[in-house]
Specification:
single chain; 103 residues; alpha+beta; YaeB-like fold; five-stranded mixed sheet; 3 helices; 5 strands
């Protein structure tokens, strides 16, 4: 059995469920399913190519990498095996404040 390329942190799985359900309520299941497909493709891209993404030390001091999948920022750790997706935030949100709350 092949090893997983990435792992969703528990809170990410919850965030993802909330994001998709909210989008389905407001914009319909078709848009929600399209977003789900884009995000899982982004997770797979990160797991397959851990060199993608960039540090945002202006937002967080930890070695957390950011990957953009419109309109979401996916935050992940490269130094884990498999790569760990630790957060998903809409790009309009204040990531610095959200990350401080989660610490």
């Amino acid at each position: 059995m092949p090893r997983p390329k990435y792992l969703l942190a528990t809170r990410v799985a919850i965030q993802l469920e909330e994001i998709l359900f909210s989008l389905a309520e407001h914009s319909g299941w078709e848009r929600s399913m399209a977003l789900e497909e884009r995000l899982y493709k982004a997770f797979d891209d990160i797991g397959s190519n851990p060199g993608v993404g960039h540090l945002r030390q202006d937002l967080v001091s930890d070695p957390i990498y950011f990957y953009f999948s419109e309109p979401y920022q996916i935050l992940f750790l490269r130094d884990t095996d498999p790569i760990t997706i630790i957060a998903i935030f809409h790009s309009s949100r204040d990531v610095r404040a959200l990350m401080q709350r989660e610490e």
